[in-house]
Amino acid sequence: MSVQSRAAGSSAPPRTLADQLRGWPDERLAALLDARPDLASPAPADSAQLAGRAVVRTSVVRALDLLDRLELAVVSAVVQEGPTGSERVRAVVHAAPASVDAALDRLYGLALVWGTPDVWRPVTIVAELLGVPAGPAAKDVSGLLAEVDDQARAILDHLDDSDAAGVVTDVRVPARPSTPTEHLLARGLLVPSGDRHVVIPWHVQLHLRGGRSTREPVDATPEFATGERPAASVDRAAAGAAYELTRRTEMLLEHWATRPPAGLRSGGVSVRDLRAAADLLHADLSTAALVIETAAAAGLLALGMNDDVDSAWLPTDAYDGWVVRSTAERWTLLARAWLDNPRLVSAVGGRDADKPINALAAGLERSWLPGDRQSVIRELTGLEEGQALAAGTGVPSLVARLRWRHPRRPAARLELVSTLLDEAATVGLVGLGALSSFGRLLAAGDDPAPALESLLPAPIDHVLIQADLTAVAPGPLERVFAHRLGLLADVESRGGATVYRFSADSVRRAFDSGWSAVEVKDFLRESSRTPVPQALDYLVEDVSRRFGTLRVGVAESFLRSDDETALTELLHHRDAASLRLRRIAPTVVVSDVPLQVLLPRLRELGAAPVVEAADGTVRVARPAEYRARTPRQTRGTGRDAARQAARTSAVVAAVRAGDRAAAARPARSPATSPADVMAVLRDAAETRREVWISYLDNHGTSTERIVRPVEVGGGQLSAYDERTDEVRSFAIHRITQARA
Question: What are the backbone dihedrals phi and psi of residue 540, each rounded to the nearest 5 degrees, phi first?
């Protein structure tokens, strides 16, 4: 039963909104809490508390955002007309009476209006939020219009047609109006809306529009611009995109598991790593960013630590469970993550305040974005089967429908509709401009996996190896088989069939993973539906012959002795297990224990080792001798004289060093560019030669010095400075000239 008939039969109208809520049946109260969930948390104590929450500004804003154009026009009429009945609202709203009654019933159910069909009242905050000014209700609008000139009437007609506010320099009306706008303000045909805007008041609008609030009906939903698309074609296109998204996500995370990109200090993935991901996926940057962001939204990718204890983007533990599920189940998780993702993925690659916007960087969150994505998908469910958005006009028609569904939505958000459609097509919800059958199931909250599974081709476990060292996969490969093939060959191209290429590097990669030449040949023979070409056999044999001829390892220290028996006894000593000794030659043993730990432990075992230097000579280790700094004398004869002598000596040394620098000033032009200066300094450090430099101190004063470089690195030059008679550091960026 609608609110009209139910309220008409009640004996006493409610005096307040709380009285109305108190008299509601449980099912209507439950419907209110479902539509406005912010009213239910925490649970209100009674109807009075619930009514108090229902008029809170933020809650009413959310409720108004749920209204379509018809409902917004109806609530505006209730606000403008003041306490008024359903009959008056039907008269002013340009819509069918049944549509107006349905809109009133929804507004009543959302607790935006209260009362009875005889007298409707809006909740107090609605008028302020809608920004509706009061108008000259009692004046003769026809007479006022006759008093203004044609220019003023043109301004009024323009604002009426655009249904927008006009901008003025001052909304105050002078004692003697002179401009057309001032005449309109003086007669109440325009009213201020803020300090610099004017609007047409309600009753003037009604007069201009023939007694209606709008010129066009507000209950007519804009039609789609459509073209014919067979549902089977739509499903095939969307299923292909869904498979590609799942495959690309797995490929990216498998790659990042072993070669993760570093996490930026400011968060996110660097532009270089994003480009590398795009090259890996054979996709553009926007598609690569969408794959990365969706994987993170699905909980499959997060910041972690690599072996160097550095921040890096790594697959999560959830990835191990996701990767073993079916393709349809994996896609379902990704698609739901995209729908609920609050991050503006399309902004990745742009710039903000002259800084690049990185994928996964902070600051891309938009709380309204999940609702906008879902509204686009929900609107596409209105397309009939076999129909799709027409090329060129389909997207604008979708935008028009969304503008009617959400008239309070900012225009900037509606401009994203085309981008969201493109993302939905990349994800696989949309194909050829229409929502897929499994996309409809996902939008309805059902499980789309069975429907998608029936559309995906069955994975295969074979390839066609060709004489040019390539292998063609004529369909999607089984996951384990594709992983093993990926060890042996690199992807060369993708499309209807994936082409893999064998090379020495790719075959060596399989050997690095522990495969033998026999295992490689057996795999190739079993997986190919064509004979394995002789060239590929030769390639495997050649790589196998060269593989492992050199061995590389890590050792902290080594033991060398001409007495093999002594080394054997040491290896078998019962207390030598903690030293982790390993024999690599009859007279050489290595250990991963540091030398400073190994040496005393060997002596505890009764050995008498000596330390061997890098050049093979014996390094004699003597006990280190330590000294303390001589205390500064607080008294003593000649202290001032000694200080003065030292100061004088330092000044003299500085003067002499300056003289030498001046004398050694190069006749020809010295190195001045940063690269040339760095080359001169490195060469001088390696040859231990003196170098003349021109150096800027902290005050910007240029000084000339002759220094003897010791080390160059980390942006610093360590060198012996004759002026100060000590080794000091110079900032390389302050060295403007240098010459050996």
Answer: -65, -45
The CA distance from 444 to 266, in Å, is 38
Kindly report the number of other CB atoms within 10 A of residue 580's CB atom: 13
The pair of three-digit structure tokens given for residue 35, joined into one six-digit string: 């539509």
Counting DSSP H helices and E strands in the chain, the numbers are 32, 27
**Residue 337 three-state SS:** helix
Q: What angle do CA 241, 243, 249 make, to 5 degrees?
A: 100
Q: What is the separation, in whole angstroms, between the first and last Cα of the chain?
A: 99
Average pLDDT, the chain: 83
Spatial distance between the Cα atoms of 293 and 274, rounded to a whole number of angstroms? 11
Query: Which pLDDT score is estimated for 24?
Result: 84
The contacts of residue 577 (CB under 8 Å, 6+ apart) are none
Summarize pLDDT for 290-348 with one digit per residue, the tens.
999 999 999 999 888 876 657 888 999 999 899 889 899 999 999 999 999 999 999 99
Q: HSE of 46 in the Cβ direction (CA atoms, 13 Å)?
A: 4
Can you spell out the DSSP letters for 435-489? E-HHHHHHHTTS--HHHHHTTSPPPB--BEE-TTSEEEESSPBPHHHHHHHHHH-
Check if the beta carbon of residue 66 is closer than 8 Å to that of residue 110. yes
The number of C-alpha atoms within 13 Å of 443 and in the hemisphere containing its C-beta is 21
Residue 135: alpha-carbon gap to chain centroid: 48
Pairwise CA distance, residues 17 & 114, whole Å: 6
Dist CA 712 CA 138 (whole Å): 89
Report pLDDT for 235. Answer: 92
Residue carrying the six token digits 């890590």: 554
Amino acid at 50: L
Hey, which residues does 728 pair with through a beta bridge? 719
Give the SS3 label for residue 343.
strand
HEC string of 623-678? CCCCCCCCCCCCCCCCHHHHHHHHHHHHHHHHHHHHHHHHHCCCCCCCECCHHHHH
List C-alpha distances in Å: 287 to 276, 283, 356, 416, 476: 13, 6, 17, 16, 20
Local structure of residue 112 (DSSP, 8 states): S
| 3-state SS track over 509-544 | HHHHCCCCHHHHHHHHHHHECCCCCHHHHHHHHHHH
Q: In this model, does residue 145 exceed pLDDT 60?
A: yes
